[in-house]
Amino acid sequence: xxxxxxxxxxxxxxxxxxxxxxxxxxxxxxxxxxxxxxxxxxxxxxxxxxxxxxxxxxxxxxxxxxxxxxxxxxxxxxxxxxxxxxxxxxxxxxxxxxxxxxxxxxxxxxxxxxxxxxxxxxxxxxxxxxxxxxxxxxxxxxxxxxxxxxxxxxxxxxxxxxxxxxxxxxxxxxxxxxxxxxxxxxxxxxxxxxxxxxxxxxxxxxxxxxxxxxxxxxxxxxxxxxxxxxxxxxxxxxxxxxxxxxxxxxxxxxxxxxxxxxxxxxxxxxxxxxxxxxxxxxxxxxxxxxxxxxxxxxxxxxxxxxxxxxxxxxxxxxxxxxxxxxxxxxxxxxxxxxxxxxxxxxxxxxxxxxxxxxxxxxxxxxxxxxxxxxxxxxxxxxxxxxxxxxxxxxxxxxxxxxxxxxxxxxxxxxxxxxxxxxxxxxxxxxxxxxxxxxxxxxxxxxxxxxxxxxxxxxxxxxxxxxxxxxxxxxxxxxxxxxxxxxxxxxxxxxxxxxxxxxxxxxxxxxxxxxxxxxxxxxxxxxxxxxxxxxxxxxxxxxxxxxxxxxxxxxxxxxxxxxxxxxxxxxxxxxxxxxxxxxxxxxxxxxxxxxxxxxxxxxxxxxxxxxxxxxxxxxxxxxxxxxxxxxxxxxxxxxxxxxxxxxxxxxxxxxxxxxxxxxxxxxxxxxxxxxxxxxxxxxxxxxxxxxxxxxxxxxxxxxxxxxxxx
Length: 709
Ligand code: C2E
Ligand code: CA
Ligand code: CA
Description:
Bound molecules: ligand C2E, calcium ion
Helix content: 40-55%
Radius of gyration: 52 Å
Strand content: 15-25%
Number of helices: 28
């Protein structure tokens, strides 16, 4: 570029003058001299050359220098070609003026001074070479801008667009002329989630860019002409030269990337089965919602849902139906909630709902009621009508309190309370629940420790046959250790339900079973005890453990006593509550030769039909009936009816909780043979069994009953 060949035109009718000028200039670098002997020839040469300077003689025959100069200045392509007039020695100032008017930029007089003419021409050569270089650089930059894969615009500080490259106009779908001079905001708009108001968008952007020199912003909306808007990413720079220097903005279509990102985000944040928010996303939202209640001084409500007996449906009807059921429930949840509320699946059959901006607790409870009612409506899944219910725990957060982990714990505790309150209901967290939950956690820990050190005791309560007038068996009842595990021993009524919430109940069951078997086995060697029966309590949770029968078999094959000496007591509610599995297990136990007793009979509203189909040998009438016998005629009639049914089904009856002689006489009058209760003996430790076998109360009863009779 620096050695661009510059063409110089020397126009003179005098050959010697042309020769002289040519010789003078020849020594200059990078020039080529072209000669013309007349004005016409000069014009001809001009048509296919680009001259750096024209040295033009004024006095020529035909067409003089002025006319040639005028012509050159009038032609678009050459009007900027510098003309240097060569005048005669005697030229007047009028002549010089004419020369300038005709378009000349300089003049020299004949005879020319070589040094002067050479230097003047040299200046034009230098200027030409600079110009060529600038043009080259300019076209190179333009080429870069044009070939850039991104749209480029230059925007004034007042937001008018000054320049757009071809990729930019392709993206905007308008030719550059339609874009240049328009406002930035006509094409570019902030992302819809942005908090900035539209009018402030450009000024804010400009300010930011000025401050930092450059700035990148993802997801700006581009509104092309006659097309739908799409997201673009912009990169802005501003030269720091002066206060209001324009901003250069590069922009590119990021539609595909945004779609991909959204898809990834969805995968990361949503549960694939139900399309509800997943646990992680819910957790994030919860944190944000809590912070918001602090900022805005408002209330937010957290509902924790757990479907009732979902596992049963999943196990019996299959996972496909289970999955569809979860999907339908998710849809129902969404349909109940407002757009601002959030529903999430925390895992399994556990869901959560966040209600922001809750004005009252009543409002939260109304939502909970709506959820309960809607979920409980029958669902049609794969042609089957299924009804499922849910339990809901409610916890509220006010002004940022409590924090996320405590709030979750509260909701959990309230949910548990709802489950305990009989399911298909909601409970709102109250502080008393927390104490209860702490107590439960304490008991659970202690249970583990007690099991580890095998510190449980077992007490035995005698069962008396009134006809045989002797103790015919015992019921094994578990006891919390006297000391070392909390201040006072905890009753089984309290700790068994807690153990039932985990695998602990299986371990407790196994412990009691082994102790009972050891005792029964021991009794086989003793003539006065080898016919005694031993009853143990089975929890419903044990019966639903898949390998319960295998475990039982593992224990039992070590012993030789006959199976019907071991009696399993199962509460009526356990049987009512549970599925076919439980009933099958009962039949298996029966077929193995064990006797089965229906415990706490009368508390669970059994239907007679039910009794008929279950393999029970013994009915244990719940102590609440026995205790009311003396003062309630209806209870009397009820127990009478139970006795009739038991006789009809050939079942034995045990009256539980007989505490005094009056109750004893009543059950006797009703025809009940077997009795268990404090009247004869409280449950006793193993070393007191002999004492209870020959108990005074039995003797005194015999004497008294003979008087009664
Ligand atoms: P349950 O099976 O109905 O046991 C009878 C309960 O009544 C025992 O309470 C016993 O001490 C009490 N009782 C007996 N006679 C009288 C009486 O005349 N008056 C009164 N007021 N009560 C009497 P306990 O030992 O506190 O057991 C409570 C419950 O805990 C049991 O009720 C049973 O459901 C459960 N349980 C006890 N031991 C075990 C066990 O080893 N496994 C399982 N799964 N549950 C057990
Ligand atoms: Ca029992
Ligand atoms: Ca009972």
